């Protein structure tokens, strides 16, 4: 799929629409397994934290889960697509989340079964993501900064 390039005065579409197209095209250039991982697992599981706001520490869990993704909207707009820089907010925000999740799951607190199961799923998903993010962050640090 060809990349959309925008030149001032030469587009019938607004720049916001073009940016969305560029981000979508960048997403579609990712390997299929990464697209599935992001769209079907990573984002939905982290957004599901919003369903548990009233659970013990639910607001903090949700703030960290969603907070690890939110800065990536700005990164995608800046880079006009998916880049390895998107690993950085995950590392900064999801590392404390993982520590919190381990504490909640092992601390002996009474947690509803559904919430406990969700916390375990969130822990596993974000540990897997952080493993990928460590590799991506190192590649970004070494200069691999282009968008997909």
TrEMBL record:
Which keywords fit this entry according to its UniProt record?
Answer: Membrane, Transmembrane, Transmembrane helix
Q: Which domain of life is it from?
A: Bacteria
Query: Where does the chain cross the membrane?
Result: 32-53, 59-75, 87-106, 118-135
Annotated protein name in UniProt: Uncharacterized protein
The organism named in the record is Roseovarius aestuarii
